[in-house]
Amino acid sequence: MKLYKKIASLLAVAALAAVLMPVCMAAPGDSIETRLNHAFALRASTEFYEEVVTTSPDGTTQTMTAARSNGNAYIKMDMGEAGQLVYILKDGQGYLVDAASKLAVKGEVPTVTVSEEAVSGEAQAIPCTETTMNVNGQDCEALSYTLTGDDGQTSTVSYCLVGDDLKYVVTDAAEGRTIVEYRVTSTSVDQNLFIIPADYQIMTQEELAAQMGQ
Fold it and tell me: Where is the signal peptide, in residue numbers (predicted)?
């Protein structure tokens, strides 16, 4: 299903970021690199909750709420006029959840793979620059690196700290600037996020297709 591919792509972005960032983490002490390492270690913890807002170059925004705990996962995407997507992974079973119809559809569990090239030492050799930036009116310390795509186009990715918190990830590319803002991050997770409400109907994709006459 396309929705599951969308979820997998979101997870892959996070996985790739975790692969690329350690390249720059060489300085000791209270450096930007060290503090970013701590921020990414927090995001790698088994208990984690975050609320993230992504602003595209055209000004449109997309809000994601994500959590994981005890092997379970929760993702909610608010995509403006495109609607809302809720995905719950509970005890090894994935569900697409629709609050409007009180329906939870069982489906595949998205998997994330990162190519061997992406994790090789050669692929990770990305020079990084420490700098300062102002993002959304807020001053921050940043670690930036430039990537070149297969089409020859370059983009600069900046991981921006406010104090010890990773507050923004900014991508500057030919089409403009994309800002990912981490509005809430916590290692405290509400376990109710992983519960399918008792009054929701649970069915398989095949049962849903049969019900819709497909």
Answer: 1-26
Q: Other CB atoms closer than 10 Å to residue 65's CB: what's the count? A: 17
**pLDDT tens, position by position, 51-99:** 999 999 999 999 999 999 999 999 999 877 767 889 999 999 999 998 8
Compute the distance between CA of residue 42 and CA of residue 188 in angstroms, rounded to an integer: 12
> Residue 179 and residue 131: Cα distance in Å, rounded?
17
- Distance (Å, rounded) from C-alpha 124 to C-alpha 112? 19
Token output for 40: 């990414």
Q: Looking at the predicted structure, is the pLDDT value of residue 118 above 80?
A: no
Dig out the tokens for 113 from the structure.
Answer: 């793979």
What is the pTM (predicted TM-score) of this model? 0.76
Q: Which residue in this structure is represented by tokens 């913890």?
A: 45
